[in-house]
Each structure stands twice: as structure tokens, then as C-alpha cells.
Design goal:
- The structure is a single chain.
- By secondary structure, the chain is α+β, with helices and mostly antiparallel strands.
- The protein is about 20% helix and about 15% strand.
- A hairpin with a 2-residue loop joins strand 1 and strand 2.
- The strands form two sheets. A two-stranded antiparallel ribbon has the order 1-2. The protein has a two-stranded antiparallel ribbon with strand order 3-4.
- The radius of gyration is 15 Å and the shape is globular.
- The protein has helices at about 5-15, 45-50, 80-85, 100-105; strands spanning about 20, 25-30, 105-110, 115-120.
- The chain contains four helices and four strands.
């Protein structure tokens, strides 16, 4: 993703009143309240790039519970961290170019930020134009 693509995404979030800009940076106004409007499908990138302390899974390590073709073998008993996570793309805030499985990045909201966790196996992807 190029800088222009990232700026467009930030502009979209600003229009939705989810992001406020200051001179030196940007931050989200808490967690977006939008419901999940898209489906993960076969995407499990968050299960790779994010830390899940309840499972002892470190950042950038594939979770042991990912099923071939997508999904989670402990879905109904998954930890609270997994139950409460919903990436910004899944919530409908970003376009198809930000689908984590193809973008190689997981955009998600923190308490006061929009975070983009990049897959270490695809480090140069964020510099590409989608």
C-alpha cells in the first residue's frame, strides 16, 4: 500500500468521525461501534500477526488452532481476546484493497490509534500501490 492509499483510508475514517488528526499524528475516537458487516472467509491473518496472550501465542506466529482453508478449531471456546477482535476492514471501514489476506496487513483500532499490523513474511507489501 502506498502512502497515498493509506492517506485515503485515513480520510475515509475521518469522514466517518472515527479519526481525529493533530499536527503530529492521528488517533481513533475510541472503538468504532459499527457492527461487523463483512465476513472473514478464509482470512486468518489476524491469527498469525497478532499476539494472543490467553493462548501464549506471540506476535507473528501462526496460531496452532487455525484450520486448513480458514477458521478456528476452538472457535466456540476461543479466548476473550479473539472473541472481541474485529479488524477495521471486517467492520466495513475500509475498501476491498485492505482485505487482510491479500493486503498482508491487519488494520485494527486501539484505544487511541488505528494500528496496521504487517505480516513479517510480506514486509514490503505496505509500500505497494493496491
Amino acid at each position: 500500500m502506498s502512502r497515498l492509499k493509506i492517506e485515503r483510508a485515513l480520510g475515509t475514517l475521518e469522514k466517518q468521525k472515527l479519526l481525529v488528526r493533530e499536527r503530529q499524528g492521528s488517533w481513533a475516537l475510541g472503538f468504532p461501534v459499527a457492527p461487523t458487516v463483512k465476513q472473514c472467509g478464509s482470512c486468518t491473518l489476524c491469527c498469525k500477526v497478532l499476539e494472543v496472550t490467553d493462548l501464549g501465542k506471540p506476535v507473528n506466529t501462526v496460531c496452532n488452532h487455525i484450520l486448513a482453508g480458514g477458521g478456528c478449531e476452538i472457535y466456540h471456546e476461543r479466548p476473550r481476546q479473539c472473541r472481541s477482535f474485529s479488524c477495521a476492514w471486517l467492520q466495513g471501514h475500509l475498501d476491498v484493497g485492505w482485505f487482510p489476506a491479500t493486503a498482508g496487513m491487519v488494520p485494527h483500532f486501539g484505544l487511541d490509534t488505528l494500528n496496521v499490523q504487517v505480516d513479517l513474511e510480506d514486509l514490503r507489501r505496505w509500500r505497494e500501490e493496491a
